[in-house]
Structure formats: structure tokens, C-alpha cells
Amino acid sequence: MATAVLALQGAFAEHEARLAELGEKSFELRDASDLLRPFDRLVLPGGESTVQGKLLRELGMLCPIRERICDGMPVLGTCAGLILLARRLEALDDKHVPRLETLDVTVERNSYGRQLGSFHATEEVSGVGADVPMTFIRAPKITHTGKGVDILARVGSSPVAVRQGAQLGVAFHPELDDDLRMHRLFLSL
């Protein structure tokens, strides 16, 4: 089949390029009619989670996507995509942002600061290997993980990559680096 890449806003083209490098067919989800196309996995890119969530709701895509994820469809959520997947937001964050709420984590939006606070790290990711490049841009911080959530990587003491079943959530942007291992992990789910 193919991988659908949410293309409402954000870094979707970069994910498509990485998937193509791995020989994976992909197409863009832009409205509810695109959900009728056959796909067996989904990428939720970085960008602005508030905008993406509101557009998902307005376009009638939020509930159908949530149902597919709950039925076990593999999903990769990067940065804003992680926020969309998160079951809970920290107290200071806008609780009215429409989200999918399928991944049992709590996140704090923009926790690593503004655009100028962006940074790059290299860490080991369980199941992927050592020296995985991680680009953080206004990234969310995972502040709590629930039962059944495996922490795959940390920067300092904070989880930055987690997996729950077929859901892979990362606070960084693997699509912005040349390393394809995070996308390979996703395609293996």
C-alpha cells in the first residue's frame, strides 16, 4: 500500500522525501476525501500543532484518523505530530487544541524555547542504534509516559522518542537530517 502524510501545514514534504529514499510510496492527506485512498500508515509532521488540530477538526479528519490509529495503524508523529498524538497537555498549555489523544504521554508545548532556542543533539535510540541525529525546533517536551509506553531515547533526563504499540512519537525532526533510521523504524511497525 502506501504511507499517508498529513499535509495541512508543516514539514510534510521533507517526510515524503525521506520515505521516497527508502522506496516507500506516499501521498498527501489534505482533506477528508483523501482518507478514501488506500494507506496503511500515517505521518503527522512537525509544524504548528494548534493550526493542524483545528484544520483536522474543521475538515472532518480528526475522528476518522483517530479511529484508524486506535485500530492499530502505524503512525509517526514528529514534534507537532507528537503533540497531536499526546493524550494530555501540561497545565499551562491550551487544552482546547483539537488533538488525536491516542498516545499515553503528557507533553509541554514549545518546552525547549522559541525558534532561537532550537538545537541539535546526537543520541542512541533503542532499536535504531547510536549517534542518531536529532534536530529540535520549538520542540515539545515529554513530561510523563503512561503504562505501555516505551522510552526509546532521551536527551538529558527527558524522553524525546517513545513508542506505544504502533505509535511512534518523537520531539525532534528526523526528516530534517540525512539519517533514515527513524523512518526505517517507522516502516518496520
UniProtKB/TrEMBL annotation:
- Protein name, please? Pyridoxal 5'-phosphate synthase subunit PdxT
Q: Which HAMAP family match?
A: PdxT
- Cross-referenced PANTHER family, in alphabetical order? PYRIDOXAL 5'-PHOSPHATE SYNTHASE SUBUNIT SNO (PTHR31559), PYRIDOXAL 5'-PHOSPHATE SYNTHASE SUBUNIT SNO1-RELATED (PTHR31559:SF0)
A Pfam match is SNO
* Pathway as given in its UniProt record: Cofactor biosynthesis; pyridoxal 5'-phosphate biosynthesis
Q: Which family does it belong to?
A: Belongs to the glutaminase PdxT/SNO family.
Give GO terms for biological process.
L-glutamine catabolic process; pyridoxal phosphate biosynthetic process; pyridoxine metabolic process
- What organism does the UniProt record list as the source? Parafannyhessea umbonata
Which keywords does this Swiss-Prot/TrEMBL entry list? Glutamine amidotransferase, Hydrolase, Lyase, Pyridoxal phosphate
